[in-house]
Write a structure and sequence with these properties.
With 223 residues, the chain is of the alpha+beta class. It has one domain: Sortase (Sortase, Chain: A, Beta Barrel). It is built from 5 helices and 9 strands. A hairpin with a 4-residue loop joins β2 and β3.
Amino acid sequence: MSLRASRACLLLGVLMLAAALGLLLHNKFEDSRAADASQTVLQELREQIAPAAPAPAVPAQQLPETEQALLPVQAEEPAAADTQASAHTVCVDGLNYLGYLSIPSLGLCLPVVEQMSESNLRIAPCCYSGSLEGGDLVIAGHNYQAHFSALHTLRPGDAVVFTAADGTEVSFLVDCMESLEPWQTAEMTAGDWPLTLFTCNVSASARVTVRCVLNEPAVQRGA
């Protein structure tokens, strides 16, 4: 090999290393930014979703007679349909969130955006299809270290908890894992799974897919 060819090969190797280093630094930057964005939103979500402390009840006999006459015989609870209609999402910085997802075994707690898009996925996992109420919720997340990169390490029986915008907590258990091709969109939403989580593998050649089943009935926080 001539000296010129050797130098060209060396230069090519240096450029390839520089490109790889640049890509690594870019990915770390994106991961860090995603972690900061999702945790900022999570803090706001928790504050908005946390149930307000009920006002202390005042016995009727402590009120003046004129005010006692105005007390209803029995306080009426708001209609369930009204509370549900306004409690499907929480808005933070112009984006609507369905609530947040907790995976204790991975040390993750992440907001879930209602509308999926590439820009939204850089902030937090997003609803890919279905709904919590419909029992067919599918959530997609980027393969960021701060988001869904560790999904492949989940095992059957691991807990997953979804806290909805109205404070309802639904507990799930991981049932099985699947690896789907990028084109298998119909398969992603097929089956009777109340919750599915998925992300790309490292090479983006497949979708790491986690199927979950219900663990226990939904619990209304603050109830």
